[in-house]
Amino acid sequence: MNRWKNETDISAKQNKKGQNARLFKKDVYKTGQADHPAEKSQGTQAACGLIRRPDQRLRKTERLLKRGEFLDLSRQAHSTGNRYFVAAFKRNGLCFSRLGITVTRKTGKAVVRNRIKRLVREFFRQNRHLLTTGLDINVIAKKAAADATGGQVFSALRLLFERIGGHTN
Fold it and tell me: What spatial distance separates the first Cα and last Cα of the chain, rounded to whole Å?
């Protein structure tokens, strides 16, 4: 006995263009609307400043990612610091600056370390103009940075980047 005898009755013909037996609504993919037309997108209001222009984002090429780059920077670099951060920096021979961030476990738990890294990346993204181009910078967080507010972190980084920019000119 054929266990799947009803499968022999399935036709191999395709549905006509625009028809799909699995969809109860014909124009779902054409209009892009869901089953609830009352819920409409709020456009840029919903994003509320989260959309960035492509020229403002921090690209992967603008970050120090490999261990060798960090080691090379620590051996050959100048350094400066303040209460919250130490920065090691040197010229890289490129037409753009690159950022590396080091936050050790003694600074705090993962949530604290990730917060510090986010703040440093955001500051670098917004304030690249304070630096001369063609620098590799490794920002090393101190333990005191864990208790700092966002404003304190930004002001400490501003002073640090101004010092780096003045030192390299």
Answer: 88
